Prior knowledge:
- This protein is α/β, with parallel strands linked by helices.
- It contains seven helices and eight strands, in the order H-E-H-E-H-E-H-E-H-H-E-H-E-E-E.
- An eight-stranded mixed beta sheet has the order 2-3-1-4-5-6-7-8, with helices on both faces.
- The radius of gyration is 18 Å and the shape is globular.
- 35% of the residues are buried.
Amino acid sequence: FPDACFIPLPGTAAALPALAAGFRAAHLPALRVIAVTGSVGKTTTKTLCAAVLRAAFPTFCREGNFNSVIGMPLCVPGIGTDVRAAVLEMGMSARGEISALSRAACPDIAVITNIGSSHLESLGTRENIARAKLEVLDGMRPGGQLLFDGDEPLLRAGAAHVRQDITLRPVSLTDKAADFFVSGIRAAAEGPGFVLRPPGR
Length: 201
């Protein structure tokens, strides 16, 4: 291949997040990013966040669950320069993967839906799963916010040790002092409902 250009790499799994990070820095510096992770509910939460954001301005959200160290970085170059916000889903099967995705996306807001028992075969304990999910903060921009399940003791304990420039926003069904308190959850013929009290309201 005399006219081809080759770039030697130690592995594509490391190269793709690095390429996404370079694209983000060069072409999308003003983009606001929400990163969504958790043991379950990532895709639904991502879709709901995007639906709200689209009511205000152009928003990127990839259909499906392109959330791996291959899938999520491949989404980033597809974000148009006219887009003001993006919601990116981040999954993992081992420690370090969400850290790489976070550094590629540089999120302004991170959401951790919950800590379950998936990936126990590779991570061993729920404590390790919580640590892996909290890697979403590794690439977060200064002054970012973390919304998380405030009723999960592992996340409350882990969040207490995050960077000082990150604002913690627990969401709770039981703690009325949480930033976001949810009550009155009900199922009705016209659909489910609940009462949400956001910060200061």
